[in-house]
Design brief:
single chain, about 120 residues, alpha+beta, 6-stranded antiparallel β-sheet, 3-stranded antiparallel β-sheet, 3 helices, globular
Length: about 120
């Protein structure tokens, strides 16, 4: 299934084909997965590492209209009406327009400004 991968270390946003399994999602984000719904449409979510902040991250990303910087990699998928994973249908350009990458200092500054 089509997924969009956000890599804040390389500051890249790419599309790829994945099998959508829990194992694959955990490999992409580097740990336990947690869905985030901020800054996306109602049909999509972004999985991030649930414990990403515990790993002393240096690289972050945030979605336009997001409520906090997200640590580590993200993977965007869609959801079927019955709650199953589905291919991402967002355009790559749409996602690129809505993601800002941050280093640790920028994430810290953003957090202080939005307390």
């Amino acid at each position: 299934m089509r997924a969009i991968i956000i890599n804040p270390e390389d500051r890249t946003i790419t599309e790829t084909e994945i099998d959508g399994s829990l194992k694959t999602l955990q490999q992409i984000v580097g740990g336990l997965i947690e869905p985030v719904y901020q800054g996306l449409d109602d049909n999509h979510h972004c999985y991030v590492n649930e414990e990403g902040l515990l790993d002393d991250p240096l690289n972050f990303f945030i979605f336009t209209e997001g409520y906090q910087p997200l640590a580590g990699h993200g993977v965007i998928l869609s959801t079927t009406d019955d709650g199953f994973e589905a291919p991402c249908t967002l355009s790559l350009d749409w996602v690129k327009e809505r993601v800002t990458f941050m280093d640790l200092h920028a994430a810290y500054q953003w957090s202080r400004m939005h307390e």
